[in-house]
Design a protein that fits this description.
Blueprint: H1 6-27, E1 30-37, E2 40-46, E3 52-56, E4 59-60, E5 62-66, E6 70-74, E7 82-90, E8 93-101, E9 104-113, E10 117-123, E11 129-140, E12 149-161, E13 164-168, E14 178-183, E15 205-212, E16 218-226, E17 233-242
Length: about 240
């Protein structure tokens, strides 16, 4: 039986180690997911080290922040809704992922509300943009007894455009974003209007357009007023789309 020299085994071990190191440097990066919310692209995975480069739909985009497991970048300009190819290079390693862009950047579904909602941020865009807000409010059970006036809920918005801070909150001029009356059938006679609390201008559903400065929030609040002993309940639905 022929005995092999220990040197042969040593050479084999070194060659194997070199191949493993090369494989780790070239194929050691993996993308798990890529999610775009508005112009912000968040990529998660492993091996994001070394010099980072990202191309979106064939064009380089700016990396805002990164760790070995997450990259945040800005897509500018933001293209129309669709599916786009993203290539990440970290040192000599690279990987590809596809990301789907939607015009929708925020969605709110608040159920069984029985009080005013304080001023709350719906979305803060990174860049200047134009947005469409879609709103719907509705009163939900349990309802007040027939003939009992409940009150109303108004929804108001605040944002900043090129002219400064704006709002839809002047109920005297009937410019609330949306409003609903909280009452049960027969209240206030045939008109259905509460004599104690007149419902401000507006409607349960509304769509309007905003021009918003980057880095400034789009905010909303509700004003709830009721004359009944117990609470009245309402649902609020909103979507915000970039256009």
């Amino acid at each position: 039986m022929t005995r092999r020299s220990p040197l042969i085994y040593l050479r084999f071990a070194l060659a194997t180690a070199a191949c493993l190191l090369l494989s780790a440097s070239v194929f050691g990066m993996t993308i798990y997911s890529a999610v775009a919310v508005g112009p912000q692209l968040t990529i998660t995975g492993t091996g994001f080290s070394g010099t980072l480069s990202i191309t979106f739909n064939g064009s380089h985009i700016v990396v805002d922040s990164s760790t070995t497991t997450q990259i945040v970048a800005t897509i500018n300009p933001l293209p129309p809704a669709g599916t786009y190819r993203v290539v990440v290079r970290a040192g000599t390693a690279s990987d590809t992922v596809y990301v789907t862009l939607s015009n929708n950047v925020a969605k709110v579904s608040l159920l069984n509300q029985s009080a005013s909602i304080p001023l709350t941020t719906l979305w803060t865009p990174a860049l200047d943009g134009v947005y469409r807000v879609s709103i719907y409010m509705v009163q939900v059970p349990p309802f007040a007894p027939v003939g009992v006036c409940c009150g109303f809920v108004t929804l108001e918005f605040e944002w900043t455009d090129d002219a400064g801070t704006q709002s839809q909150s002047d109920t005297s001029n009937q410019s609330t974003a949306a409003s609903i009356s909280l009452l049960e059938g027969g209240c206030g006679g045939s008109s259905g209007a509460c004599p104690e609390l007149q419902v401000p201008g507006g409607s349960p559903g509304a769509v309007f357009i905003l021009q918003v400065k980057g880095g400034t929030p789009i905010q909303y609040t509700t004003a709830y007023q009721s004359t009944q002993t117990g609470p009245a309940y309402y649902d609020l639905f909103m979507t915000l789309d970039q256009i």
